[in-house]
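pasting for the record
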Amino acid sequence: MAGTVVIVPARIESTRLPGKPLADICGRSMILRVLDGASLAEPDRLVVATDSRLIEEEVVSAGYEAVLTGAAESGTHRVYKAWEMLGRPGERIINLQGDEPMVQPEWIQALAEEIMPPNSVVTLARQISAESAMDSSVVKVVLNSSREALYFSRSVIPWGADFVLQHLGLYCFTPESLSRCVSSVPGSLSRSERLEQLGWMENGVAIKVVPGNWNALGVDTPADLEEVRKWFTSC
């Protein structure tokens, strides 16, 4: 995919699952599972941005590229740091979380193919039941008729719906929108929901959403890790 750079932020510390990027998933670490899936999309560049030499060694020993960014305020800030260290490559910069081992090349292709004005971001969502969405760790999104996000929330939105859209935590930026997002000052909505993308919207960045039947399970807890291991065993 010409002009597309995928950067995977991965930090070693995790409150609920310490050392998460190096967790074993059927004989291969989580971070390598993410890179293996992303590499199938054949981006121009695929890089891990990390604060850990252990993660860097794991990535490089498998033939992938990594940069040490030091501390960062968020995953998006870590992506921005890595992007600057790499010389600001690409027309599209995809932030793919390091805890999405089930990533498929179609995810990256969908983001890269979407029409993007300079000051915009593209992300993904999938339909789930309202019952499944009750967990506050599942981020929900509602859209307008142009598939632009109206709001993201940890609460179930819209109220009364049988099915809702779950947001998947990966983003495609232009150089302009990435710079604007990391310089945005979080507003009251962003601080209340603890969702950085609301801060971007509060500062005038449009977020386009591509709904689809994406088979995803981000790993936040030991229970999530066990579910992902079952999926890889059954594949």
